[in-house]
Amino acid sequence: MGSTSAHNNEGLGRRDLIKRSAALGLIAVPTMSFLSACASGDSSSDDKVEKGEKSDKNPLAVNGSAPLEIVIFDGGFGTKYAEDAKAVYEKTYPEAKVKFSATQKIQSVLQPRFNGGTPPDLIDNSGAQQMDMGVLVGKKQLTDLTPLLDAPSIDDPAKKVRDTLRPGIVEMGQFDGDPVWIMYYAYTVYGVWYSQTALEKLDATYPENWDDMLALCAKAKKKGIAGWTYPGKHPYYLPFSLYPFIAKIGGVEVLDAIDNLEPKAWEHPAVKAAFEAYYELVAKDYILDGTPGLDHRGSQGAWARGKALFIPNGSWVENEEAAIIPKDFKLSVGAPSSLDSSDKMPFGTIWASGGEPFIVPSKAKNVEGGMEQLRIMLSEASSKSFTASTKSLSAFNGGTDGIELSDGLKSGVAALEKAGTNVVNPRLQDWYVKLQKEQIGVAALGEMMAGRAKPAETIKKIQAFADATAKDQSIKHFKHQ
C-alpha cells in the first residue's frame, strides 16, 4: 500500500442521510502502556550457545545438543500445531532438550525476562497481552529473520523459505527497511462472521449494502435476535470489519494515512461515514444487550448460540468456539457491506493478513534453534497440521491438499477469491499496539459503541491520540514505503 495523502472533501452520498439519536457524554478511560518498560532493560546474557556446523541438512548452523525454549500463546488456535512442530525438532535434534510452555499472559510472563536479558528462544507474541511490536523493534530486542527466509525450505531445498510464503507475509514482518523482525504464522481473514443457517431462517442473504444491513438487523430484532455483538471489553476487535469498511468507502489511501499518523487522517469523510454507520447500530438498538461488558469469549459464545447475527472477528473464531458452534451453523465470513454506490472499492474488499506473530529475541540463547523451529513450522507437513487442528490457513502458500476444509475455512478462501487484489492490511495493530488497543479501541470505539460518545467526538479523540503518538519521540515511528 502506498502513502498518498487521503484528505478530500467530495460528497459521500448516503452519509448525509444518516440520522442519529442522542447519546451520553464522552467518558475517558484511563490507559497506560503495558509494555513501556518491556524493552527497557539493558541486562544481557552472554552465554549464547555455540553454533553448530552448517551443512545442507543444517543450513542455519543449529547446535543440535543445545537446549531450546519455546513459549506459545494459548488462544484461539490452541497449541497442538506448535507441539507437533516441536516433536519434529526433537526428532531432528534428539540430543536437544526442548522446553515448551503455553500462556495467555505473554506480556506479564515475559516482560521480566526481556528486562533481565533472559528471554525464550521463540515466542508466539499474540493475544490481549501481546508485547508491543513497535517497541521491541525500536529497542532492537528482536532478531532479524532474514537468514531464515533465505535458508532452503524443508520440502524443496531448491526453494528459499521466503519463496514458499503467501503474498504479504514477509512485508508484514518489516517495519523500516529490509530486515524482517516477525514471522506471522497464521494467515487470517478478518471480517463480519455469521451463520448462514441463521440468515436462511430469516429468509435473508448477507447484506451487500448498509441499508440492507440495517433492514436485516430490524428484521432480526423482531424475532428477538440482536443484529451485532462484539467483545465489549476488547473493542479493538471492531476494526476487523471497521477498517476495511473505511477503505472500501474512501480508498486504501485513507488507511495508509492513518497508519502513517498523518495530521487530520482520522478526519477524512470516509472515517466519519463509517463511524456514523456503526453508530447507527447503537442508536437503533441493534447491539446485543450487555455487549459492552462481554469479553471475546462471552461475545463469541452469545453469537455462536444465536443471540446475535454478526460479530467482527478473525478466522480463529471457528476453532476458538468449536465446542459450541452447532454442526448446522454454516459458519461464514462477509466483507464489509457497501455504504453506497460512491464507495471507492468494490464489495468484497476485505482485510486479510498474517496473524500469530512469532519472534526470536535478539538476546535469546539459542537464536539458530528458534529460527530452525520456524523453518520446520513453515513446511507443508506442519502447515497441514496447523490447518487441520485450527481450521485456519498458515503463512505457507499451500498445505490444504487432502484436508477436508471446514465451513469457516471454505468461506474464508471464497472471500479471498472474491476480493482478488482488493485486500487491505492496516498496520496500526502491529506498529502501535497501545494506540490501537488501549486508545482507539478501549478509550474511543468502546465508548462510542456503548453509546457513551458520538462519532464526531470519538473521531476527535482518536485524532488527538494519533497526534500525540506522532509527536512522542520515545516511540519508534513507521511509514508505508
UniProtKB/TrEMBL annotation:
<comment type="similarity">
    <text>Belongs to the bacterial solute-binding protein 1 family.</text>
</comment>
<dbReference type="Pfam" id="PF01547">
    <property type="entry name" value="SBP_bac_1"/>
</dbReference>
<protein>
    <submittedName>
        <fullName>Carbohydrate ABC transporter, N-acetylglucosamine/diacetylchitobiose-binding protein</fullName>
    </submittedName>
</protein>
<dbReference type="InterPro" id="IPR050490">
    <property type="entry name" value="Bact_solute-bd_prot1"/>
</dbReference>
<dbReference type="InterPro" id="IPR022386">
    <property type="entry name" value="Chitin_NgcE"/>
</dbReference>
<dbReference type="InterPro" id="IPR006311">
    <property type="entry name" value="TAT_signal"/>
</dbReference>
<keyword id="KW-0813">Transport</keyword>
<feature type="compositionally biased region" description="Basic and acidic residues">
    <location>
        <begin position="45"/>
        <end position="57"/>
    </location>
</feature>
<dbReference type="InterPro" id="IPR006059">
    <property type="entry name" value="SBP"/>
</dbReference>
<keyword id="KW-0732">Signal</keyword>
<feature type="region of interest" description="Disordered">
    <location>
        <begin position="40"/>
        <end position="60"/>
    </location>
</feature>
